[in-house]
Fold Glycosyltransferase family 2 protein.
Amino acid sequence: MATISLCMIVRNEEDTLERCLSSLANLADEIIIVDTGSTDETKSVAQRFTDRIYDFAWIEDFAAARNYAFSLARMDYILWLDADDIFRERDRQKLSAFKRTLDPTIDSVTMEYHLAFDEYGNVTARNRRNRLVKRANEFRWIGKVHEYLEVWGNIVNSDIAVTHASVQHDSDRNIRIYEAALARGESLSPRDLYYFANELKDHGRYLKAIDYYEKFLATGQGWLEDVLSSCGKMADCYHALGDTERELECTLRSFRYAAPRAEFCCRLGYYFLQRNEVDSSIFWYNVAANLDQPKENLGFTNVACSTWLPHLQLCVCYDRKGQHELAYAHNEMALRYRPHDERMLHNQQYLQNVLAEAKPVSMESVASVETK
């Protein structure tokens, strides 16, 4: 059976570290904690699980800290987590079974990363990350901020998921690192341009964010998933600024780079629905609803846009046209994904009454959702 080193970098994680490490109990053969300057009880929490606790002077470089942690590993494979990540029980069991049968020819194992959830516990945002890697390959982390693990060889996509369960974080940390680098006259890589733009957007600095997304796209060197994401995020910026026409341009711009994705089709559906151009809205929501599910990749996936959301919006569209049987059918399809959604249950009752009475009703009666 393969052995696993859990390698983590931490700083002021007393609120989350115990939960994280408890979720890995009896699965990691060694636990390596690299502390980058905690001033709380993080180390005391770590000592309940391991004596392999090390200090690393923080130099505003996440890759350097992670590479140091990896250098301390002694087992066959290295698993990495952040302190606000956990394995839920079903995923603990999957990891335990996977570990017992892990093929030593595998160089890296990707796992889903569940980033956000709706009120019913359904995953609404996810991506994939190389999470378990062969130590002998000496894979390296790259990037001071939003670092990534460069891997190659025999890579397996597992059905194991890591769940992000954040309690708190320093929301200004990353943008400070980027701005300090720029103040020193350092150049940002294409990847850093993208992530700096994300930080600017998250801080509500929309015009500057757009400027850096454009700089990123102008390099022509971005990963496709980041390129598409930039189009969507610029559309979000213009939406926040109230510029719907440039929002539309950014949505359509995504088609330069790849076949239509469900997210962008839903954006177009919403654009036309807001203008009461219902037939055009129906076209784009139908495209979103009938696209194949995205293939496995490491990019971010907005699950709603390829599952329940287009069906809910099609319910709205067909109701406005007085085609209540189609509206009802699409609401039922949306309910398959969210069977307790109050909006959809309202629509169901309303449309059942309409179909039973077979008389005209207001086209604004069904519940909708904003898509941007």
